[in-house]
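Record type: monomer structure entry
Structure origin: computed from sequence
Chain ID: A
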Amino acid sequence: MGYNVAGMDVQEDNIAEQAPGSVGIVRPRTVTLFAPPDVLHLECGRTLGPIEVTYETYGELNAERSNAVLVFHALTGDAHMAGRHSPDDRKCGWWDMMVGPGKGLDTSKYFCICANILGGCRGTTGPSSINPETGKPWGLDFPVITVEDMVKVQKALIDHLGITQLLGVIGGSMGGMLVLEWIVRYPETVRAAIMVATTPRLNAQSIAFDAVGRNAILADPNFKWGQYHGGLPPESGLSIARMVGHITYLSEQGMHEKFGRQLRKAERYSYDFTNEFSVETYLDYQGRAFVERFDANSYLYITKAMDYYDLAARQGSLEAAMRPVRADCLVISLSGDWLFPPKASRQIVDALLANDKAVSYSELNSPHGHDAFLLEPQVLGRLIGGFLANAAGQPVLAGTVNQEPYQQPAAVQTAWARQRIDHERMTDLIEPGSRVLDLGCGRGVLLSRLMRHKGVHGCGVEVEQEAICECVERGLSVVDLDVEAELSSFASGSFDYVVLSQTLQTLHRPDVVLKEMVRIGRYGIVSFPNFVHWKPIVQMLLSGRTPVTENLPFWWYNTPNVRCLTIRDFEAFCRENHLRIRRRLPLIEGRREPIRFLPSIRAAEAIFVISRR
């Protein structure tokens, strides 16, 4: 027996015949909200009510009502996120690969909710619904709606369910816009926010694609200015709109790999205007399938709402708009997404960082374009699952936050992987409760140590996908940025310490990074191997080959090191660039105390604390 929500038993009424990894059979529900006189005041100035909302739930709401996760669907989605409505259904819900026991949205832990948005055509009030004043479908008499209006309706649903604070809100594509609006409109009601492949506002290109789709619908002779119900719908126009939209969801690489220039049937051209290429047939199928499940008027209204949305416009800047945010945020972009490209997600991340908000960011490498948020369950599942687990106070890797040994990503693997003396000494150098930025943080071992032993507020910068996933699973904030080109995202003086641990020698522009470190933080702490340590020098003299040592464990052909610096080189650089050396710790293997006699050749490694003069 599940917990009772608004008079309905969640477990027995909503989910039946659960199979491993599946939520089984689900039953949608519909609730009436904003019944007059309690009407919804729309952004356009009109009112609307009553409003019916269709939604589905998965999992059980716990007794504290603290495990609820609200998921917003994309433009053409609906409330049916996972499972099947009947055993005969051919398809599962649109995010079935992500929702269920043991998946990213683990229904054995979380109570997941997904509702059809205002203006939709899958149960929630929209232009295909009956206008109570006329007894006929609204058509274009339906009021123009906005993303803000959609979020108000979703909030009313959560209130109806008796949930005062959500564990998380999640959305991809247009759903991410709803997440953005939620966290600034109702900041006190959510602990974690996850935005995937989204944008704070559409650019001109995206608006143009929406306009082409709408014009195709409006130009269809069967459209009849939206009053086509009871007759032939504008199938041709809606199909073309879907084709245009679907192209934007794919990527050039994905289309090349899937279709190329392959012909559908024949080996030679037919020299007519039939659909000959496989990609033509695919788009034709997508268009025909779409008109069977979606309403043309809803397409007009929802795309217009997306075009209107501009989070920055209300407050003058995106940075100002993000000030109310209280939730920890996870932003995920997709490398092959040209509809909402990674730079759009970076705008969100930069605005959150500028407001000193807790944010993690990952650019997922995928050939699938914008649709990758529906097609990459492994990495997305780890990121989403790890982030929610931390928000719930149960990090996935909670038991291993300071566990050694440590295997770093190959691209940044460094000396003393089994005993990081530099990590121990860096921990000694940092004051308790400080704000720390770790550049090239790997899997977060140093940050975890600092949080555990010094109670610091930390953020990591990393580019390796596996390392980012593990940081998120450890409950760390980490952003996917290039330390040599993208540190401008961090404001001057925003951290007490900026750490660069055994990474300096791998950089192409270490001078730029070092100057950025002392701009961002009060102090920079740098550790690097000393390339004139006597052991590799002797080894090279005796063997005539590039040395390989415990501290320099690479062959000449696979080393990530591109700079062979020494202790004296670094000291000279600081003098020439007006950087103040506050501490110098030359270290040898296995000893925590710095050496004093001949450190330039006896030290295998050095740690420097630097600042502006």
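Annotation 1: The first strand starts at residue 4 and ends at 5.
Annotation 2: The radius of gyration is 28 Å.
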